Amino acid sequence: MTRLTPPLARLAAPPPGPFRPGFWRSPLRGPWLTSVLGLVLLGGLLVVTVTGLLSYAAYNPGLGAPNDRTPGKGLLGFYLFSWPTSPYWLYRLTQGLHVTVGLALVPVLLAKLWSVIPRLFTWPPVRSVNHALERVSLLLLVGSTLFEFATGVLNVQLEYVFPGSFYPLHFYGAWVFLAALTVHVALRVGRVRRALRGRSLREELRTPTRRTEPEPPDETGLVPTAPAAPTLSRRGALGMVGLGSLTMVVVTVGQSTGGPLRDVALLAPRGQDPGPGPNGFQVNKTARSRGIRTADIGPDWRLTVRGPGGRREVLDRAALLELPQHTALLPIACVEGWSTGDQEWTGVRLADLAARVGEGPAPGVFVESLQLSGSFRAALLRENQVRDTRSLLALRVNGADLSLDHGFPARVIVPNNPGVHNTKWVTRLTFRNQEGSA
User: Fold this and answer.
1) Keywords assigned by UniProt (predicted)?
2) Contact 62, 435 (CB under 8 A)
3) Do 274 and 280 touch, CB atoms closer than 8 A?
4) At the N or C end, where does the chain have fewer CB atoms within 10 A?
5) In this structure, is residue 303 part of a structural domain?
6) Residues contacting 277, CB < 8 A, separation 6+
């Protein structure tokens, strides 16, 4: 047997602390618990990923600026399609699921990281090329997952915490996460299957703390070599995680569903009922925060409407009110997960305004706002959005004039449209033919 010289021996031996095999002593850790948590996390993350990518498609980034905030996406935009206007509640559903499920997964994610933390301190850190690749994929998976959760939660809670950059950051982070997850699942699927078959979930849920024993040792390195006495059963651990997720749902989901749960939507800054009255529903950005001045929306306000051929009309609010008025029952749904109930909007159809300055089917439209600062002061809408009979330049809501914070003197409202693309304080509509596709 070859003996190591003292320096090499010191190098081969793990350093003190978490690198030592006996440092991690919880008898709950093992392949089975990690696999159960991983399976739950995987299912939830697939929901969050699909709804997140659908949210990106809802912004119609294929139309280019100002909708597209991810230049150079290239092949990553292969799945994009023309976002539909029906069903009108689709974006409310998908983005509500995206945020609610994402927040509900936070306790599961933390528990999963706790269960595998010994693997982050294996010694030596790299044993072979395959081991190195596995470690890199794990690092990318953990890093991208934490990044997506952190940026998402911050954006929901703080509103535009990454002005002009949240969307590309979150979009590209999602693709890094998907790539790392695919590699990780491919490397682990066999091991997870064996771990889940090795123990019965029903039996574990019946096992109290006093009869909780460590899992048999295996090559994963998760099972402690010197386990401590159990202070909690696996049933209790899973119950705590489940209770944490349920709590996150209760204090979040009301921002999307409305009803009694809206009052307890504590994690939804703009999810609770703002008060009574026709304009008593959620406001994401106020007139003051966006630099709207009283003079801008006074008697001198005018709406300029331009057509594809250069035809132009300038209308004041009185002239707009004299045009045929139409009503649509539509919610406002935001990327942050909150949404309103159906509000009764009244105004002029976008298609009718397009017909006044053009001929033939209504084309797409470039909508510009009076706002002087902040994101989303303009948006491009597709032809299908303009032609939908429920798409309005709204002048009133629930029988009353729009409030200033809801977009007075006029705002756009389009079915199944992200809230920030229902532009407020509209000053210019430029109807134009659109080339290309999503």
Assistant:
1) Membrane, Transmembrane, Transmembrane helix
2) no
3) yes
4) N
5) yes
6) 400
Task: Kindly state whether residues 224 and 362 are assigned to the same domain.
Answer: no
Tell whether 373 is covered by a domain: yes
In this structure, the answer to whether residues 258 and 385 fall within a common structural domain is: no
Across the chain, what does the average pLDDT equal?
89
Total domain count, the chain? 2
Co-location of 138 and 221 in the same domain = yes
Tell whether the model's pLDDT for residue 438 goes beyond 80. no
C-alpha distances out from residue 9 to 1, 14, 22, 207, 393, Å: 14, 10, 19, 43, 76
pLDDT of the residue at 389: 97
**In 3D, which of 301, 310, 336, 322 has the Cα closest to residue 91?**
336
* 12 pLDDT tier (thresholds 50, 70, 90): low
List, for residues 225-274, the tens digit of each pLDDT value. 889 999 999 999 999 999 999 999 999 999 898 888 888 888 776 655 56
SS3 at position 253: coil
Q: How many CB atoms lie within 10 A of CB 358?
A: 20
For 413, the domain range is 294-432
Determine if residue 368 is left, alpha or beta; phi over 0 gives left, psi from -120 to 50 gives alpha, anything else beta: beta
Q: Is 435 helix (H, G, I), strand (E, B) or coil?
A: coil
Q: Could you give the angle at which helices 90-104 and 234-250 cross, rounded to 10 degrees? A: 140
Residue type at position 281:
F
